Each structure stands twice: as structure tokens, then as C-alpha cells.
Amino acid sequence: MKNKTTSLDLAFAIFLLIASIALFLAVLGSSISAFFKFILSVAVLVGCGYGLSRVFKYECWYGIFLLRSQYGLSLLDGLAKKYPAFWTSLYELGMVIGFGSFAYFLLPKKNYTWKRIAFVFGLGTFLMVMFSYVIAPLATSALFSMLSGGAEFASAGHGLQTSISQFEFVKYVFLGLLVLGGLSLMTTAGLVIYAFVVVASLAGAFFAGSALSTVSPGGTPIIPGINLPLVEGIAALAVVLIVHEGMHGIVARMNNFPLKSAGLVFFGFLPFGAFVDINEKKMFKGKKDAQSAVFVAGTTANFFTSLALVLLLLAFSAGTAPFRLNGFYVESGGLPHGALITAINGLPAYVMAGANLSANTTYSIQTSKGSYSLATGPSGKLNVTTSFADSTGDLGVFRYADGFEWMAFIMRFLALAFALNFVVGAINLVPLPLFDGYYLMKNAVGNELAVKLIAGTVAVAFILNMLPWIFR
To answer: At 224, is the secondary structure helix, strand, or coil?
Structure first.
């Protein structure tokens, strides 16, 4: 029988929560390197999660604890029974998007007419190509634009594309990989290929004395507040996990696999989403095609959610264009934040900006919030940090007028939720242990030795992709 929580326990929990939040914010605001900032912030969250779990007797793994409940299970059960044909079509399309031709080995072989096969593989292939060549670039661009250090990862992908694009046949090889194994094989191939780039850099560092820190990392941990906006990042990750776990639960009930509980996931004091606890003992005793349906369901939900969110993002962007600014937007410095610089000494700002300013000279700066006098330093620079705001986003960044900053928050949330749903969904298809892609690969391959070799190779490649980030 569990001990009751005492008043002293509650007082300790409140103290731990306040202290952890304060320490977390202090780490975020410090000037230490991104790597040590990440390590220290994770340590704070682990300590907070472990302490809270001890007080309230929660299950805890390295600071991640679960709040279990039976609430919501009846909703998932009802959805599974009410729309079985819709959910079946959805995860079958997801199987083709994720695994291309390999989906044949994962889908059930019975009760399939030629009409059904044409629908699943025809529409699934179209969606697979669209996600690969339209959604993927948009998602990575949106994520890199808000990810601290995102330019590094963008340059990694650009460098890889540049190095292999000199060979004309490569694009046909990657198209062949896509048709053969879908987004799973494409993503896995990208990890393995970039791992060879890192190995070559390691060899150069060892034999020629070059620095590994000059190599762009192929991956990074993503934590709101560390390398993503805090509130928008938490909300976006919550959407990712809720739709992912919810779809797992719905398809599990469609196949009569029991659900033990549902609930919320916390990492320390940060809410990280939701979970559905499926009775795995009974599920792994079931048919493999039913297991595969459950495993692919979460990623399928992420893909289609990303599609819905990108359409919503584009609509929101178009609808709020009249509230966005154009011009030199003041980010920080000797002028009010959010002001637009309209003129310098009576001349248009773009004429006088940059190299046209003289050193140690006072200038009259006209802005949307009034006129100011500022002097340049010895290098001819004003003590002002600006960005070029552009309402279309073609030439600069989005910035909203005073009073409409909440629109920028919604924009960031929609962009992050869209990007993370796609990126997390694609990575989840990679055959790494504990990922859904591992169990799907295991069901398709069957041979235990081959499964271990594939998973081991991909795990090594995954670690190598992360290695340059550790040496930053």
C-alpha cells in the first residue's frame, strides 16, 4: 500500500518546482555554450522529475514521469468502432507513404480487391511523392528558421546535396529508394550517407589534424527553451504526441488489443504530451499485420496532421498579411523595440544604412515611434540591431505591428507544429530500437540476425550524425 503524501512532501514539491524553474531559466539566460546549456538544463529537468516522482509515487525514467488515467479510453474506443473504414484507409495510405513498395509485405493479404489495391497504392504513392518533394522541404525550412543553430543543420543537408548532386544518376537512385522503401528508406539512407561524411571528417581530424567542430552535425536533440521557443515548442510537441498516441490507441482498439491507461507525459516540470498504454503482451501475440497497423498508425497521424497544419499555416499567413510590417525593424539597441526605421538624416533608410554611415557621427533617426539622435562608433555602426521585415516573407522576416504580436505567436506555433509532425513522423519510421520503424522492419524482415544487423547499422549512423554537435 502506497504511503499518503504529507504536508511536508507537498512543501518540498513546491520548493523543488520553484527552484527548478528558476535554475532552468538561469541556465537558458547564461552565456555558456549550447552543448553545456543543453546538458545543464537536462540535468535540472531530470532532477526535478525524479524528485516529483518520489513525492507523488509516479513512474519515472530519467526525469520523465507519467500521469496515468482511465479518462479518454472510452473516447478512443468509440472512435474506433464508429469509423473503422476511415481509420483503415488512413493507416493503409500511411503504410505506403512510409514504406513504398515494401508496404506489400506489411499490409494484410486477404480481402483485397484490385480496386482497393489501386486506391491504396495509387493515392499512397502520390502522397508519398508529395510529402517527399513538397512537404519535407517546407517542414525542414520552417524548423531550421526557429531552431537555434538551425543554419548548421541546414548547411549539413545543403553540403550533402551539393556533394552528391554532381553525379546525375544520384537523383534517380534516391527516387528509386523512395519508390522501393518510401520515406523510411529515404530517411535511413540520408542518415547512413551523412554518417560516412562524419567518418571521413574523423579520419581527417586524426591524420591531418583538422577540427571535427568544422563539420555540420546531421542531427540535434530538440528541447523547447533550449533550441526552440519555449511555449510554442511545448504546445507543438504536445500536438505531435497527442495525435500520434491517439491514433495508436484507435487502431489498437480496432484490432481488439486492450488499452490499459492513457495520460500525460512530463519531463521535469515541462509537459511533453500524451500517451496511450497498449497491452503489449496481448498485442505481440496477435497477427503481425494487425501489429504493423498499430505501429504505423502514429506516424500516419503525424503526416496527415502536418498536411492539415501547413494548409492552415498558409491560410493564416495570407489572412494576417495586412498586419505585418515592411522595412528595417528594430530588434534591440538604442531605439524602441518594434520600431520601423523610416529615414536617416531625412534620407530613406536603405540609402543611408550600412557602409554609408560615417564613424563617430551623430545622426537623426526617424522611426514609426518618433525621431531619435544616435551616434555611430569608431566602426561606423549604430548601437541598433535590426532585421529587414517583409510582409510577404520573400525578402526578409515576418514581423507584426504593435498590438498584433499574438499573431506572431500563432504563426510560430502553427509552423512548429507542422514541421515537428512531419519531422518526428519521418524519424519515427527509421529502424532504430524503440522506434515504431524498428518493429515494422522486424515484422517485414522476419530474420532475427538481419534485424539486428540493420538496427545496429542504423544506430551507429544515427550516433555519428549527432557526434559533430557534441564537439561544438
So the answer is: strand
Q: Are 97 and 127 in contact (CB under 8 A)?
A: yes
Domain boundary among 66, 91, 114: 66
- Residue 404 in any domain: the answer is no
Task: State how far the Cα of 334 lies from the Cα of 346, in Å rounded to an integer.
Answer: 19
Closest CA to 317 of 232, 392, 388: 392
Do the Cβ atoms of 209 and 203 come closer than 8 Å? no
Looking at the fold, whether 214 and 168 belong to one and the same domain comes out as: yes
Query: Which DSSP category does 210 fall into?
Result: -
pLDDT tens-digit series, residues 46-93: 999 988 888 888 888 888 887 877 777 888 889 999 999 999 999 999
8 Å CB contact between 150 and 143:
yes
Distances (CA, A) of 178 to 185, 332, 422: 7, 46, 16
What CATH code is carried by the domain that includes residue 373? 2.30.42.10
CA distance 125 to 360: 63
Q: Which domain holds residue 23?
A: 7-66
Say yes or no: 212 and 132 in one domain. yes
Q: Give the C-alpha separation, 390 to 411, whole Å.
A: 15
C-alpha span between 126 and 130 (Å, rounded): 6
Same domain, 261 and 309: yes
Who contacts 93 (Cβ-Cβ below 8 Å, separation ≥6)? Answer: 120, 123, 124, 127, 300
| % helix, strand, coil for the chain, step of 5 | 65, 15, 25
Give the pLDDT confidence of 310-319 residue by residue, as tens digits: 999 999 999 9
In this structure, are residues 398 and 391 in contact, taking their beta carbons and an 8 Å threshold? yes
Residue 463 lies in a domain: yes
In a domain, 406, yes or no: no
Distance CA 441, CA 444 (A): 5
For residue 407, tell me if it sits in a domain: no
